[in-house]
Amino acid sequence: MPLERAQVEQIALLARISLTPEEVELFQDQLSQLLEQFQVLSELDTTDVPPTGHAVDLQAVMREDEDEASLAPEDVLRNAPRQEGEFFRVKAVLEE
Amino acid sequence: MAAEERLTIHEAGRKLAQREISSVELTRAQLERIDRLEERIKSFITLTPELALRQAEQADQRIAAGEAGPLTGIPMQMKDVISTKGVTTTCASRMLEDYVPVYNATVAERLLSQGAVLLGKGNMDEYAMGSSCENSAFFPTRNPWDLERVPGGSSGGGAAAVSAGEAVYALGSDTGGSVRQPASLCGVVGMKPTYGMVSRYGLVAYASSLDQIGPITQDVTDCALVLNAIVGHDPKDSTSLRQPAADYAAGLEEYTSPFPLAGTFSSSPLAKGGLQGGPVRLGVPEEYFVEGMQDGVRESVQAAIETLESLGASVEPVSLPTTRYALACYYIIAPSECSANLARYDGVKYGFSYQDTQNMWEALERTRAGGFGPEVKRRVILGAYALSAGYYDAYYLKAQQARTLIRRDFDRVFEQVDALVTPTSPVVAFRLGEKINDPVEMYLIDVCTVPANIAGLPGISVPCGFSQGLPVGMQVIGPHLSEQRLLNIAYAYEQATQWHLERPKI
What we know:
The complex is a heterodimer of chains A (96) and B (506). Chain A has 96 residues and is mainly α. Chain A has helices at 5-14, 21-38, 73-76; strands at residues 83-84, 87-88. Chain A has a domain at 5-43: Histone, subunit A (Orthogonal Bundle), CATH 1.10.20. In chain A, strands 1-2 form a two-stranded antiparallel sheet. In chain A, a hairpin with a 2-residue loop joins strand 1 and strand 2 (87-88). In chain B, strands 1-3-2-4-6-5-10-11-9-7-8 form an eleven-stranded mixed sheet, sandwiched between helices. Chain B is globular, with a radius of gyration of 21 Å.
């Protein structure tokens, strides 16, 4: 089932990536082909098969809640495109 | 020493210990060789010659003080997805072009604390997404065996550097084959350890249930030495396994018998699990000899299997019927996880940031449009689709269930055999531009390597011949935590053959 143009635009919106019309067209074509390939999975009977998230059995790891040294604020901010004082500067989040 | 001389870690280590050379001499020779070759190979995104020489001086002091380890003073390259404090770490992306980490990845910390000399950061496919190194936002790396061909990927820079002698060894990362496949295409050794063996703290995340760091080296002994240095539990990585320390290099069986694989491995604790007395049992899964595999690859791997048999191993065909679902499974799970992991690139905390608007959403969308290259966009969008309401069950959940079946397949086979022998890549190095515009064809290259990631298994690729003058790699896959066994099988093969001694003429 090939992807519709509007679907690609909708997913791009969800992924927060603005695409050019050419990219939308290219991805529509390429992703449709890939989804077609994925159809092979429908051959598999997965009734009552539990999903695997990690291939190695892992327990949730917790540590004692003790204070430890963390990065200094100036280090945390060192790569920030915009900062003000000890803060990341962002664009207005709340609209009027 | 002369820039033409090529040394492995263990050879250089011996010369350093016996004061035949100093680390500064070794590092200078290495930098000269990079100077001579790098214009053609392009394996480094960032070179750190001054840092390397400072580290080499310190290494020489450690050696003089008798405090050296096997990696002390040895010059290496680190894939540019591994955070290095104070050294730009780009992930081969415009997004992180100017990003300078303020902390070291645990693997970087471990190597540096053991006196490693960092020559620079290795080129790769952007965010480790790709199989040819052509997805680097900066430039492609060339295969030292033929400069018109790709080195493989995503750790193409590391494999090319080790093959060309631009670095003694390299660290890569392997999510679907990104250490093993370039190692195969460049004629060097590459290993993906069991999921959780090596801390990923400071490894920029791509697909977190699959990512694992691994060594790229000139031979199996070196691989064991690097593995020694990087494995071990790390409280900073919640997926890190609690395994007792092991000396993999010491565990390599010193073969005196002409049939090293005829008896069970004796000396290494990790090698014992699952192994019974008698010959090493190797399984050859027919499903890995896929349609479209090049004849030259098939023939080289089959000859290698005969060599293993002549060394005393018993070889039997086995079947892993779920192999045909592995690629689809991988190309749903990896993009899904990547779409979640890469949500962090918002132009606020670090990285490229589009500023020319007052609107927050527009800034975000344009930051990501400008910072990510085409393959990254493709995978993020594919993953977002697979995870979206209405499609989750059909794609992501289905793939996670397929993952269970693939894992069960391996569990079943490993009751029969000790390890599997397969080709690493169905093709030898291909030409630049040959597959880059066709993602479906490019993804097929990963067919033999993704199953180990899906099941969390260790795998190693070793050189096993040439086809069309280009290296072919054999892959050995084992059960969880069978690293020592894989190294021993690879080592027995290597000692019986000369392929690992072949060098590209450049």
